[in-house]
């Protein structure tokens, strides 16, 4: 049975809830005409100091000294990881001062090799079945990618997949690699 008093209270509570939500909304959402959609490059966040790379990762990075490196933490069983891998390879092939190293997290080396063979890609990889590297660099989400400068110091990180072909992403990466190369 319909209770008009109860319906009135519900409307009043819904109105109050809307006012509270509007009061606590981020400024970009609450101001008319300020609805800039974040660009994919905005997902790349600055990274502070990380502990030194564990030995297995250092061995793979050493031959790349002087190049900026994307270190991609991924797994063959992670669908977003599998989807973005060709774009990462394409990006590093199109940028002369940039290399790609992949860290296979909690994965089997034979599965990683088979994935690379099936997709005709061959980036250097480190197998991290016990998640030693992942834990050392506080990687909790897959995929996670870090951009190291030419001295292999971490500069940017993205947690989750990213459109590596997007101009804003490439511009952000170029700005870091160009700045670091100029200082080296």
From TrEMBL:
Task: Tell me what organism the protein belongs to.
Answer: Aromatoleum toluvorans
Q: Which UniProt keywords apply?
A: Redox-active center, Signal
Pfam annotation, one family: AhpC-TSA
Record-given protein name: Redoxin domain-containing protein
Annotated Thioredoxin domain residues:
38-178
User: Is the keyword Flavoprotein in the record?
Assistant: no
According to the record, the signal peptide region is 1-30
Q: Which PANTHER family match?
A: THIOL:DISULFIDE INTERCHANGE PROTEIN DSBE, THIOREDOXIN-LIKE PROTEIN HI_1115
- Tell me the CDD domains matching this sequence: TlpA_like_family
């Amino acid at each position: 049975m319909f209770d008009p008093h109860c319906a009135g209270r519900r409307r009043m509570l819904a109105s109050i809830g809307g006012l509270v939500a509007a009061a606590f909304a981020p400024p970009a959402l609450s101001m008319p005409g300020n609805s800039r959609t974040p660009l994919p490059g905005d997902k790349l966040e600055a990274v502070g100091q990380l502990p030194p790379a564990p030995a297995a990762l250092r061995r793979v990075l050493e031959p790349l000294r002087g190049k900026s490196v994307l270190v991609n933490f991924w797994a063959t069983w992670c669908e977003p990881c599998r989807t973005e891998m060709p774009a990462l390879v394409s990006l590093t092939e199109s940028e002369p001062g940039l290399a790609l190293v992949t860290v296979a997290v909690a994965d089997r080396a034979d599965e990683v090799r088979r994935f690379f063979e099936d997709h005709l890609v061959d980036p250097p990889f480190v197998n991290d079945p016990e998640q030693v590297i992942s834990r050392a660099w506080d990687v909790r989400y897959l995929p996670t990618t870090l951009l190291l400068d030419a001295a292999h110091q971490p500069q940017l990180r993205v947690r989750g997949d990213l459109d590596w072909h997007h101009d804003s992403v490439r511009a952000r990466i170029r700005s870091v690699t160009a700045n670091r190369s100029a200082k080296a």
